[in-house]
Specification:
The chain is an alpha+beta fold. It is 44% helix and 22% strand. It is elongated.
Length: 354
């Protein structure tokens, strides 16, 4: 999946983001965790060219919360490896080396600076002490396409929720899904490849286990989350979905506020379509409901992995606008379903026969 490239706006107009050359960042990872982190901190201080930065070991020391001696050593390793050039003018600056054809990864400034009173994600990963975890984290941004997929494409990574046909009323079939999901990754996914190359030569299971352990660590500290989405067709067990389109998100505790509202209204609309016994069974099992038109014969609820911190680019803004617009339509539909079913339930038996 290619990252959409565009000409950045002027410094005054640009969003709170920066970009790194994927190849050069991976080379920095080969120098160790501290050098890779220092590379990202210095890159976050670049301007429009994504190369020239006045941030140095001082910025790395502060943002990574490490000793100055270690920050200076990390930066020096980058210089010695040719990944940074030093300009010792009146105002010293660093120039990041670029590959012949840079493949840009767009990153949010909050990775280095943090948000509100939260610890910066880069400092958090430094505490987790795993350069492979850092490389995975940044690689996921390369595969992250909000406007098309709402996060990382399910063709590469997805959680699969168990779904069951719970009932039907009129033109709608009520589907229930379990809150937990089993996660799958495509063998060709670029963020999985390093694990396969590093560990899979002996046993592919070792690579897969290491990958999922790292993904779970990122989830544990809130840097990425799996958000349930309803899709029009179900993949075969363990097989990445094809071109099936997401109908809408249906999260309970995560996702955006408007997505949680849709998830709650869909559940309430589903409950309104069930009998008392079916509602009791659903509640006892802890399932969530989604009513879908009957012609959608084999829907699926898949977890779409979405990074919590997102670059404030034009593409991110476009996704928010489109997502909210779609949510408004769905909100109205589910509210109408709830109202209609509630009105029918209040009718007397005589009125109901008319």
């Amino acid at each position: 999946m290619n990252v959409v490239e565009f000409t950045p706006p002027s410094k005054k107009q640009r969003g709170n983001f920066f970009a790194v050359d994927e190849q050069r960042f991976n080379e920095a990872c080969n120098l160790g965790l501290y050098s890779a982190l220092a590379y990202l901190v210095i890159a976050s201080g670049t301007g429009r060219d994504h190369q020239t930065s006045r941030w140095s070991a001082n910025a790395a020391e502060k943002r990574l919360e490490i000793a100055r001696s270690r920050a200076k050593a990390a930066v020096q390793r980058l210089v010695d490896a040719g990944l940074l050039g030093r300009d010792n003018g009146k105002r010293p600056k660093y120039v990041l080396a670029l590959s012949t054809e840079p493949q840009w990864i767009w990153l949010p400034q909050q990775l280095a600076d943090g948000a509100a009173d939260e610890k910066p994600p880069l400092a958090l990963i430094r505490e987790m002490d795993d350069v492979h975890l850092l490389r995975l984290f940044i690689s996921l941004y390369r595969a992250h396409e909000l406007i098309n997929d709402g996060g990382v494409s399910v063709s590469k990574l997805f959680g699969q929720h168990l779904t069951n046909r719970e009932g039907q009323q009129g033109e709608y079939v009520i589907w229930a899904f379990e809150p937990s999901a089993k996660t799958f990754v495509a063998e060709a996914a670029p963020f999985y490849t390093p694990y396969r190359e590093r560990l899979g030569k002996k046993d592919l299971a070792d690579a897969t286990n290491a990958f999922f352990k790292a993904l779970q660590r990122l989830e544990m500290v809130g840097l990425i989350e799996s958000i349930p989405h309803v899709f029009g067709s179900a993949p075969k067990p363990g097989v990445a979905p094809g071109d099936s389109e997401a109908i809408h998100a249906c999260p309970v505790h995560n996702g955006e506020p408007w997505e949680r509202e849709i998830g709650q209204l869909a559940h309430e609309a589903g409950l309104a379509c069930l009998t008392d016994g079916q509602r009791t069974w659903t509640d006892d099992m802890g399932r969530r409901l989604v009513p879908l038109e009957a012609h959608i014969a084999q829907p699926a609820v898949l977890g779409v992995y979405r990074l919590r911190y997102r670059p404030k680019t034009a593409m991110t803004a476009a996704w928010i606008i489109a997502s909210k617009k779609s949510a408004a339509v769905l909100t109205e539909r589910y509210r109408r379903m709830i109202g209609e079913r509630s009105a029918n339930a209040l009718k007397t038996p005589k009125e109901g026969r008319k």
